[in-house]
Amino acid sequence: MATLLFITPNFAAENTRPILTISGHSGATSDADEITYDQASLEAMMTASITTSTPWFDGTSVFEGIPLEELIGELNAGATKITAIALNDYMTEIPFDDIKANKPILALKRDGEFMSVRDKGPLFIIYAYDSKPELRTHLYYSRSAWQVAKLVIE
Ligand SMILES: Nc1nc2c(c(=O)[nH]1)N[C@H]1C(S)=C(S)[C@@H](COP(=O)(O)O)O[C@H]1N2
Ligand SMILES: [Mo]
């Protein structure tokens, strides 16, 4: 019983801890806007699902998440690219034209489960690799950052 009392608040905290920062310019001012999101708020924004094979997991996986195009919504005025920065400081640039054309998502779940950091979570940029050969190339794999912690819109 004592254990349960300790565990319950920890589960709640898990989901309200900030896991993503997005910074960019709204266009109205030159000040950088910075927004942080926790898992619960990102989960509420999930609208897309991609079923595909990947170089990282056996077979086909179902990824659920938020199209990058939607996520950056109001911050995208005049945006030309996004830089994604991962927990291990891996950094990759994604041109906005690619985001519009290929609709990558910021995935939160794989096969219905949140992804743990050890399983390349909590956030993984995923393309529909199976939809065309062009996406199964080093360029798009290199844009597929896992353990994403920060997006900078430029
Ligand atoms: N967080 C993170 N994501 C990453 C990388 C990385 O080092 N860290 N490497 C990228 C690169 S360069 C490629 S080609 C693909 C595939 O990496 P892998 O072959 O090591 O699985 O993941 C991409 N995503
Ligand atoms: Mo790579």
Describe the structure.
It is a single chain. The chain is built from 5 helices and 10 strands, in the order αββαββαββαβββαβ. The mean pLDDT is 89. It has 154 residues and is α+β, with helices and mostly antiparallel strands. The chain has one domain (3-153): Sulfite Oxidase, Chain A, domain 2, CATH 3.90.420.10. Molybdenum atom binds at residues 138, 142.
Structural class: alpha+beta
Q: Could you name the ranges where pLDDT drops below 50 across 5 or more consecutive residues?
A: none
Q: For the record, what is the CATH homologous superfamily label?
A: Oxidoreductase, molybdopterin-binding domain
| Quaternary structure of the protein | single chain
Strand proportion: 35-45%
Bound molecules: ligand MTE, molybdenum atom
CATH top-level class: Alpha Beta
Tell me the number of structural domains.
1
List keywords for this structure.
154 residues; alpha+beta; Sulfite Oxidase, Chain A, domain 2; 5-stranded mixed β-sheet; 25% helix; globular; binds molybdenum atom
Ordered list of secondary-structure elements with their pairings:
Elements: H1 2-16, E1 18-24, E2 33-38, H2 39-44, E3 48-53, E4 60-67, H3 68-71, E5 81-86, E6 91-95, H4 96-102, E7 105-110, E8 113-114, E9 124-126, H5 138-143, E10 148-153
Parallel strand pairs: 1-10
Antiparallel strand pairs: 1-2, 3-4, 4-7, 5-6, 5-10, 7-8, 7-9
